[in-house]
Amino acid sequence: MVNVKQSQVYLLYGEEPYLIQEHKNKIIKKTLKKEDREFNISQYDLEETPIEDVMIDAETFPFLGEGKVVIANHPVFLKAKPDKLSFEHDTDSLLEYLQNPAEYTVLILIAPYEKLDERKKVFKQLKKNGEVINCQPVKEWDIDQWIQTLANDLHITVPKDIHELFTQEIGANLMALRKEMEKLSLYVGEGGVVTREIAEQLLSHSAEASGLKLVDAVMEKDLGRAIRIYKDLEKLNEEPIALTALLASQFRIISQAKVLKQKGYGQNQMKSYIKAHPYVIKMALKRERAFTQQELDQIMNQLAETDYNLKQGKMEKALAFEMLLYRLINIKQNTSVSS
């Protein structure tokens, strides 16, 4: 999914490290033979080195081989409000270089920023004389495609019905997704199939995903599972106060989604009212059907009471959280019996 056009100058910008790294690696592979890479790649941090020094290197003939790659990180002068440095960049030297880039050098500027000031002369010249590549984070709805692409690259099969596990645990972090996919490919081997059981066992767990699992355990009235999830989180040094806040956040979003759904709002409209990732809203809408508004109100009250007791030190933390899980499940059981 990462294609690179041949150019003498590249600008990679955006906040997705995986895409930046992939593009950078592809440019280097296209430009230099493997044996030339040790001596003919220079790297600079433009928060510490003036751009004019980088231009001198770009114009210097390669030490060995036919070409060289010069990488300049953090070109702060491309931002609308550049960071204050102990020196000033002579951007005219870059503008002059862009008019006539050295044919033996490939220059890569890496700007890991959300936005650049496209009105600036330097940006316009980079766009005119080089290749500008957007490396912004991917959207949640594109993750299925990325899972499939990475699975094909690694020669493994990941069934579509377990893609949700990856989104739940990793979100839209491509670097983390790549690492998890590589780990799974080592486990199942070339041509292997990643089953749900394997994914659940091997995928790294995030606190947010574990929070959703705790919600599901409450929803399913499964105290044993809820305690097991909590014990796993305890091993990761997750504090009961933080976990209580995480549960409160999850149930608050579920409650908000329920209220907005009853008012006729769709998932896209809810984004204006619920300050959360679209995937979180999607998951909340799946879960709100399992709770009445009365149950959600009681759950939020119980969470607020536990939060207060934990912060006041009125009960041992681990015990207080386990009691919380018991009470939340009891709310579900009592309403199920009464209905």
UniProtKB/TrEMBL annotation:
MF terms from GO for this chain are: DNA binding; DNA-directed DNA polymerase activity
Q: Where is the DNA polymerase III delta subunit-like C-terminal domain?
A: 212-327
Which Gene3D superfamilies does this entry report, sorted A to Z? 1.10.8.60, 1.20.272.10, P-loop containing nucleotide triphosphate hydrolases
| Top EC category | transferase
Pfam families, per database record: DNA_pol3_delta (PF06144), DNA_pol3_delta_C (PF21694)
The keyword rRNA processing belongs to this UniProt entry's keyword annotation: no
Signal peptide positions on this chain: none
Q: Where is the DNA polymerase III delta N-terminal domain?
A: 10-136
**Reaction it catalyzes:** DNA(n) + a 2'-deoxyribonucleoside 5'-triphosphate = DNA(n+1) + diphosphate
Enzyme Commission number(s) of this protein:
2.7.7.7
Which family does the similarity line name?
Belongs to the DNA polymerase HolA subunit family.
Give the NCBIfam families listed for this entry. Answer: holA
Name recorded for this polypeptide = DNA polymerase III subunit delta
Instruction: Provide the species name.
Output: Halobacillus litoralis
